[in-house]
Each structure stands twice: as structure tokens, then as C-alpha cells.
Amino acid sequence: MCRSPPVGAIRESPYGSRKYRPETGKRKCERLTFRNSVTTAFEPERVLMPVKKSDLYSSIWASCDQLRGGMDASQYKDYVLFMLFIKYVSDKYADSDDFAPLVKIPRGASFRDMVALKGKSDIGDRINTEVIRPLIDANPKLASSDFPNFNDAAKLGEGPAMVTLLTNLIAIFEKPELDFSKNRAEHDDLLGDAYEYLMRHFATDSGKSKGQFYTPSEVSRVIAKVIGISGAKVAASTRAYDPTCGSGSLLLKVAAEARTRITLEGQEKDVTTAGLARMNMILHGFATATIMSGDTLADPKFKFSERMLKTYDYVVANPPFSDKAWSNGVDIDKDPYGRFSWGAPPPKQGDYAYLLHILRSMRPQAGKGACILPHGVLFRGNAEAVIREQLVRSGILKGVIGLPANLFYGTGIPACILVLDKENATARKGVFLIDASKGFIKDGAKNRLREQDIHKIVDTFLRQVEIPRYSRMIPLDEIADPRNDFNLNLPRYIDTSEPEDLQDIEGHLQGGIPVRDVDALGAYWKVMPKLREELFEDADRPGYCRLRVPAAEVKKSIFEHRQFLSFRKKVTALFEVWRSENEPQMLGFGKGGNPKQFIELLSEGLLASFEKAPLLDPYDLYQRLMELWMETMQDDAYLIATEGWLQGAQPREIVKVKNKDGKFVWPEEHDFLKGTRRFKSDLVPAALVVDRFLPAERDALTALDEAIASLEQKLEEQREEHGGEEGLLAEVVERDGDKIKISPKAVKDRLKAIAKDRDAKDERKVLQEYQALLDELAKNKAHSKTAKEDLDEKTSALYDRLTLADVQALVVQDKWLARLTQSVQSEMERVSQGLTTRVKVLAERYETPLPKLSERVNELEAKVSAHLAKMGFQL
What we know:
The chain has 29 helices and 24 strands. By secondary structure, the chain is of the alpha+beta class. The strands form eight sheets. The protein has a nine-stranded mixed sheet with strand order 5-4-3-8-9-11-10-12-15, with helices on both faces. Strands 16-18-17 form a three-stranded antiparallel sheet.
């Protein structure tokens, strides 16, 4: 296989697959998947565009679907993740004679050598002996248990079945878009992120008991931030430890927050999962990390001596919830490490056992940590209550963060994060509690923290801000009060329930809106006090009011009020200030830029700009920007960082791909030149170019398409009216089940047949009308086709003439900022609709008091009685 030259470091491109033909002795490119320009001639050695990260993920996951067969995700994940690992390290280091900075690939043990085994009858055994065994021998940190058995007939089938399966598996990772030879980027970790993406999906697919090897990245990010490592002075000597590290994702999030190289160590009971962690560390650039296998409680591997555990600057963990077998092999009464000096956890409830191990593993006087545990640790009694009291009295418990239910794979129970800090523990006077249980979004069968939820939790905890119904600093005296008795159940201290919408009996009886309900809208009246005066007036008795305007005019009265208009103006002005400050940052971002720093700069600036915005929640706007980033801006930023603005804007050629039925189809809808070859620009979609430079042509084409839709609707109406068995179009109707259709030829033939039939006058008239519609439709379709071709040609020509300023305007103004401007408007609309809806609800609720309702009922009863009397019935 020959490859195109590399295009850069960030978001590497999928290169066209090009095969060597021995019969000619020449290299010939048989298929080029992507091409940068639609106007240049075929150039085999042309530098290609990078694949989008989202495309890579979906491609890998679609490939994994082919392996399901008789295995569930907990089994086939081992094979897929190994293949991803060996492909990556082979692309990076297989041709090197030196020890690579991450891993050494012996000659004969690379992915290329696995490719040579495709179709061999002993492929499974040879992968084990010729690839995996030499890889283990050359890399002391890797172990046999890290890798699956490629000769396992029970999982992979026997004989030809195994050969076919493994051959197909290797072929999947031969795909050109999975060429990672130049992937390692200064500012991106494509393979490490892809590895985590796969583990997340495998955890989702693995079923109730198989999700232990992965902690949701959103929760990992919260932990990594609240322990404070990002604001601390760290160095290579700074050590972080996870005693139940799973696949290592939590440790890696801590390392990412450190923003410099630190030492990582972890232990994992399951040997296969420990292998995943070792490979994960290598893929993320932490080959020096030490991951050990074994039971942390019974046989801790990281210790200074046989009687002293090794201590760390930062300890994080997501141990198995309520482990019933934790005490196996543990001498609780004579624990050599002194972990149970505060008391022995229940034999069948291991949560506090892991917590005590974490506390002992934190550096004295300075260690910090965080642990995910089930919510029950906050309030369960007996032995756990004794330990919990000691924990609170010690001052080490800095805070508790309550999380939403159903976040974790393998369980739906709610969990919490215990934040631990030995620094200044003796001086600590309280425990900071956050109840974040209501901040999430549904994601399939699970719940997931949104970006705004993560940011709000972290901001609130680090700033120790008290927010009603969300967070509180609880003094130790209140926790120790006999009424609480060191019970930390969050609802005891934070009431997160929404205020009940009370029905006012007097209001229903006598009419009038309770003033207390209007007062409850105080946030609005603080910003728009005159609006309240113009909407409401006093009723005929104290404590009640009524609308000054008809209920139907409430929305108009609010939206047109000068103070409401002033509110919108202030919010718009805040956004315009942010825009003016950050648009130069967007335009200044370019090739070699750091996308992660880029979005952090934009998002943090937006959050700060709207912190004092009236009525709006700044975290809602932050979420809007982060959604835009995930959907669009992220791929754009990595493309610009790799290719630059102009090169990134050039279209790429799209080829047909096989669908699940084995047919070649276009993989998606494309923007322009819909001929035998199709092209698409990821950075500057054709719609943006058309909207800015060709609006007249766009509008003309839209008008034609609308005319076509109208004509097709009229034809449908004609078929429905006259297409029945006795209808005037019955002779030309062709039936296909419940559907009917009429071909133009059938109409012409029928008109010709009845041209001189005097009895067919009505039929002839309807057929002629139908024919006229068909002719008009054909004419419009012809015009539409010509207009589309003309628009495609003009659009294609424009791409070659786009200047740097053009591309930046299209992307920054028309693509990014236009969407964000719309989001700000939507948030203001949501606020105003909230006020409008509530005022109308109150007005309608108390509009008709009970006496009037009774009068109305009496009137209706009298009318019914009168009607019944006329019919001869008496009530």
C-alpha cells in the first residue's frame, strides 16, 4: 500500500487507497476517496483533506457492528480495542528501529504483518504467536492478560468461520480513513478520544453488569476539576492514583486538567480491564503510567513497605458500588496499613472500605481526592454511621455533590461525589453540599450531564457559592445536631422541590388574582416594574388584583412594552459586546491553532458576559454555544487548524459506498454538482456560498420548486377526485396496492382515443386539465433542472475565487455567529414566553368565580330542560 503525503497533525485525513501493481512495476492509484478541488485534473500525489472526527467515530462504530455475531459487547470490545491499539502504534512506530517514546513494535509484529495473515487457515494462532507475543516481550508494561485470544474457537468460530471473521476484522482497520501515521497532533488526541468513544459505546451495549470499565467522561471531568489540580502547581513529580481505575479514563481526565505531565498510577482487579487501561494510557501519550492488576483492598500493589501504603497528591476513584465481596482476603482487625482505624465497614457493603483506602492513600496534610459512591453512604446507619461521623469530624470531607440518577453504566441508582482535602482539614468548619440531581439530559436509556451542568457544578463548588435549592455550606454544628446526627442526606439541608402552584379558594369563589402569585414573578418585575403596573390593577378587596388588559392581548402588551423592549436591547447589547471582542479571535484563529483553547476562550467569555444579564441564565447561553461547538464549530476548527481557511474551504470529492444490502449509494446528500461525481465542502457548505453570493438564483430556484410542489398537489387532488372506479380518470389510472398513478402516455393515448366521442365530453375536459397540469409540471421541472445545473456551475466557479476574507465571512459570520445570534434571540423569547404564559394562566384560572359558574350552569340546565320538554320528556 502506498500513501499520500501527510497533511498535518490535527484531525488527520483519510488517504485514498492506492495499490501496487506488480505486473507493470508501477504504482497506480485505483481509487482516490477525497480530492481537494473540483477544477484541477486528477493528481495522484495531491495532499488530501483530513477526516472529521465525527466521521471517524461513526465509521469505526459502524465497522464494529459487523463483529457482533455470537458475542456481546463485553467480549468483542476486547478484539476491537486491541485492533485500534495495534493499528495506531503500528502506523506511528512500526518502521522505527529505535525505541519509540510510547511503545516498541518489533519487526514482524505490526498491523501490516497482520494484513499479510488475512485468509490464512491458521490466522488466529499466528496473530497470537507472531504479533501479540513479540509485542509483549518488547514492552515490559504490557502483559499477556492485556490481549484477547485470537485463536478462541468458542468466541470466533472454528475453521473457515474464524478465518473469515478475523480477515474481515483486519480489513475494517485497513480502511484509508483509519490511517493514523501522522495523527499525533500538538493540540488533539484523535486516537485516544476515539478509544474513549468506543469504550463509552461498549459500556452502553454491554448490559447491566458490564459497564464497570468505564466512568462517564462528564463525571470524570467534574471530579478532575473539583479536586483543584488545574489551579495548583504541578510537576512531573506530582502523583495521581486511582485504586479502581477501570480503563483509566478518570485518571486521564485528571492528567488533562493538570495541563502538564504528571505521574499516573492505578490498580484494577479485572485483568482484561487493566489491559485496556494500559493500552489507553499509551494511546493518550502516558506510556510511563503504571497500571497494576489485583484486588486493591486485599492486595494493594502501590506501597512504600509491607505496612505502609504509597501516598499521593491526588486520589480519584469510581469503585464498584456496594461491593458485597470486598472483605475477601482482607484482615479487617489486623490490617497492616491501618485503613480501618475509624471502624470496620459492613461485611456486605464495601463503599466505605474503598473510601478508607483512598483516605489512607492521600498525602498527609496535603493530599486531595474525590470518590464516586452510591447516595446511601450519606445516610446509612450502624457501622457506616460511625465512620461517617469520624469523616465529618476530621474535616477531610470538603464537600458532597449529589448527581442525577441513571448516569452510570451497570446501575440506575443515584450517586454522589465525595470531595476530600487534607489541607487545612482541622480548620474546616463545614461541608459544602451541592444537589445537582436535576441537571441532566436524556441520552437514550441513560441520563447525561450537559456542558452547562458540568460548568455550574464546578463553578459553584470551587467558588463555594450558595444558590437556593442547589447548594449550601453546612456548618459542622448543624450536621452534628442530634436532629441530624451526622446524616448527610442532601434533602435534609437543600430543598430542591419546585414551589407548589397553589389554588386560591377565595379567588375561585369571589374572583381576582392572588397578589402572592403576581409577587412570585418578582424577577420579571425587578427588571420591568412599570409592566406590572400596566398589566394589573387592584381588585375590590385587599390581597387580590385583576388584569387591566384582555387575556388575549397579554402577549402583545408584554412584547410591545417599553421596558420589555429595553430588556431585549440590553441583552442584545451584551451579546454585541461579546461579539465585537471575540470576532477578531475567531478571524485570527488559523492553521496550527489550538481548538481546545479557542473554544475555552469563546465560551468562558460568553459566560462572563452574561453573568449579569437580566432574567437569562448564563449557563443556558453557554450550553447553546457548546452545542454549536459539538455540532459544527469543532469540526471546522480542527479543519482550519490543519488545513487553513482557504484549503479547508475547498470541496472534496465523494465516492459511492456500499450500503447494508451491498449496493453502491451516495453516503449522504451533497451540496452541489450532483452528477456522476459529487463534491462537498465541510468548512463552507454550498448553501452558505449561495445565500451570500447567489441569492437571486437561489430565490428563482426556490420559486420553481414551490411551483412544482403546487402542481403536484393539484395533480394529486385530481387523482383523488376523479381516480375512483367510476371516476372520469378511471381509464388512465394504474393501481399499485392502495396507490394510484397516471402516466403522461396513458393520458395522451386516452385523449386520442376519445377525441371524437361526443359522449366523453366531461372525461375529455378533465383529461385535458390533467394534461395541462402535466405539461406545466414538465416545463417547470425542466426549468428547475437547468436552474440547478446553472447554480451548481456558478457555485463551483465561486469556490475557486473565494478569498480569505470571503471564507472567513462565510464561516464566522454566516455559519457560526448567525446561529449563535439566533440562540440568544431564542433564549430571550423563552423568557418572555414564560412570563406571558404564567400571566395568562393566572388570568384564566380566576377569570370566572364560582357564583358566575353556578349561574352559567343553571342557565344551561334550564335550556336543556326546555329542549327536553319540547320533546315530551320531563326531568
